[in-house]
Protein: DUF2642 domain-containing protein
Amino acid sequence: MIEELRIAAMYHQRVILTLQDGDLITGVVEMSTDPTRVKIRCIDGLVWVPYEDIVNVNRLITLH
Structure:
């Protein structure tokens, strides 16, 4: 899961995160220096999500 987030951050890909409480967060992953949380830029602004709260990661890739 963390590796998928790192790949998405490298390629500036949009992701959909499913959290333990059932919420979905959609946004672009940004590199973070915090080893316990991921940084997502979404419509609501910058959101920090602890890795332990993430159940599933979906990467949205663009095919050219």
Summary: The radius of gyration is 11 Å.
